[in-house]
Specification:
576 residues; alpha/beta; four-stranded antiparallel β-sheet; 21 helices; binds arginine
Length: 576
């Protein structure tokens, strides 16, 4: 569709500004901005431009605001703006304009007013990336859910997104896994469910090595053999990866998360030695006590934190692999941007490799998108009762079980198949929404009762709001019929129409700081606005244009809720 409301108002505001008597005193390139009003009491949109400018032209802000308003042409968009407080300019939209916007939304079934990005990019999204045969912990849960949502939103905005699961398939853990595989493996358990069995091996060997130095050496020996290309160890390793992938794929299927590529760390093995050589040749890396490092003497924060890229024993490191990965993504995948959704503790690592990339003249936008921890109710790191790291597969299973109980209570009349299907949607949706409704850097508390509650800022509440928009058409006995007249007769209708039109402003804003939680907050506010409309405005009891208008509002609300939840990776159901 066309420009957003904020953009339309900003165009008019800047035109007005150009016509004021102080316009010649404006700083070069100044653009006045318009934002959604914080408090609707004073209007629908607002601008603080007069306050910013008053300082520049040394005048009273309210006077500046008055002068701008004087030459402001609202046209069919806005009424005459008002001045508030110290010099805010407040805009109130024309009813006819909002009616037109609702009509536009109805016609734009797929994008619902959201314009594609003006500068579409090729983006490689690096998220989830668990380590094979090691526990996939809560950090990976966060990365998977946030990364998937950002991927969906970027694609929706017209970017070409390549999701790449950079699994840790070549780490030192394989020394222990190989030893365990040869001495402790239970083949039947492995066949039945590989991930837990690999995990059991890893944990057992890991525990044993704590007391047994000889065993540590044996494990190291297995690792060296693997890295040296020993056929037997390579065969075991390959099977490990294949089995883990099957196990992981099950989790991703349940989460409805898709990867275009699975280029794990091992994919880059052959590229590491030449890469280090080229860094040496370019004088970016240097030898230090037998190892190869990159120093950052000119960067304050990294001055005493060199990046190690080859150990003195010849081994390569996590950083080396990531540098090779950047090359591949830029050169082969043609990435304009690479997004890394990885926990905050890896900040230093990404600072280092991004600096090195810059020095190598690589200009792709490299974005580290960090997140905090998930806490238990005791505010400590989330753990299972036995003290282990919580496994994603178990979290999903329990979420669905709990959702099923709720569905059974709420809808005992549904068939067992329906109940299962709805429980899956609500259970998985709740886990995702608990994550995405928080700012990613927040350490949030994982609490089943809160996330599954039917009231409040939760997935069940939002999915239920969608269900209510659908219920009305079931009652009506037919789907929405386009072409009716739209004319507002109640404030609650205007409020809802405004909220719906703002979807177009919210979706692109998510990517400015990678915050899906702004979309979550918007959807929650949309649901509560819809609820107020629902209480204030009967639909099926009305006739003619009033009824047509209200049906249109229900229809568009349903579409925006479904689309918005979809961008968070959350499915909807037609009834619950
Ligand atoms: N496997 C790593 C971990 O579990 C995450 C990898 C993130 N991606 C990357 N390109 N380094 O910590």
């Amino acid at each position: 569709m066309s420009a957003t409301i904020a953009e339309l108002l900003a165009i008019r505001l800047n035109e007005a500004l150009a016509n004021t008597d102080f316009s010649s005193g404006l700083p070069e390139g100044f653009v006045a901005r318009v934002e959604q009003a914080q408090n609707r009491q004073f209007g629908d949109y607002q601008s603080n431009a007069a306050m910013v400018l008053a300082k520049q032209v040394k005048r009273n802000p309210r006077e500046v605001a008055a002068a701008i308003i004087e030459s402001f042409e609202g046209g069919e968009v806005s009424e005459k703006p008002e001045i508030a407080g110290p010099g805010f300019i407040n805009f109130r939209l024309q009813t006819g304009f909002l009616e037109g916007r609702l009509g536009g939304l109805l016609d734009d079934e797929e994008k619902l007013g959201v314009s594609p990005s003006g500068t579409p990019q090729t983006i490689v999204a690096d998220f989830s990336a668990p380590n094979v045969a090691k526990p996939m912990h809560v950090g990976h849960i966060r990365s998977t859910i946030i990364g998937d949502s950002l991927t969906r939103i970027a694609s929706f905005l017209g970017h070409h997104v390549i999701s790449d699961n950079h699994i840790g398939d070549w780490g030192t853990q394989f020394g222990m896994i190989l030893w365990g595989w040869k001495h402790l493996l239970n083949e039947d358990a492995l066949e039945a469910d590989p991930i837990p069995e690999l995990l059991r091996i890893y944990r057992e060997v890991n525990a044993k090595t704590k007391e047994d130095e000889a065993l540590r050496d044996e494990c190291k020996n297995e690792l060296v053999k693997l890295q040296g290309g020993d056929a037997g160890n390579l065969a075991i390793w390959e099977r490990c990866i294949a089995l883990s992938r099957i196990g992981l794929q099950k989790i991703y299927d349940r989460l409805d998360v898709k990867f275009d590529l699975w280029l794990g760390e091992s994919f880059y093995n052959d590229r590491l030695a030449p890469l280090v050589d080229s860094l040496l040749a370019a004088d970016i890396a240097e030898e230090s006590e037998g190892a190869i490092c990159v120093f950052f003497p000119n960067e304050k924060q990294l001055a005493d934190k060199p990046a190690l890229i080859r150990k003195s024993d010849g081994g390569f490191l996590y950083a080396t692999t990531d540098l090779a990965t950047i090359d591949y993504r830029i050169e082969e995948l043609k990435a304009d941007a690479v997004w890394y959704v990885v926990g905050a503790p890896q900040q230093l690592h990404f600072d280092q490799i991004f600096r090195i990339a810059k020095r190598r003249g690589q200009n792709a936008e490299l974005e580290f998108i960090p997140f905090g921890s998930i806490l238990g109710k005791d505010r400590k790191m989330l753990r299972t009762r036995s003290g282990d790291t919580v496994q994603l597969a178990d979290v999903l299973e329990e979420a669905v079980e709990r959702a099923l109980k709720i569905v059974e209570e709420k809808n005992p009349e549904f068939s067992p198949g329906e109940k299962k299907e709805i429980a899956e949607i609500i259970g998985i949706g709740s886990v995702k929404y608990a994550e995405l409704s928080q700012f990613r850097m927040t350490d949030y508390i994982f609490d089943w009762d809160t996330m599954l509650a039917l009231k409040g800022n939760t997935a069940p509440y939002l999915i239920n709001a969608y269900v209510r928009t659908r219920a009305i058409f079931r009652k009506l006995g037919s789907d929405f019929e386009p072409g009716g007249t739209i004319t507002f007769t109640a404030d609650a209708e205007k409020d809802l129409a405004l909220k719906l039109a703002q979807f177009a402003e919210i979706v692109p804003a998510v990517l400015s700081d990678f915050r899906p939680n702004t979309l979550a907050t918007y959807l929650y506010e949309l649901a509560t606005t819809y609820h107020r409309f629902w209480e204030a405005c009967p639909v099926l009891k009305e006739e003619g244009a009033v009824r047509e208008t209200r049906l249109a509002l229900c229809e568009v609300t349903g579409r925006v809720l479904r689309c918005g939840l979809g961008l968070l990776g959350i499915k909807t159901t037609e009834k619950m």
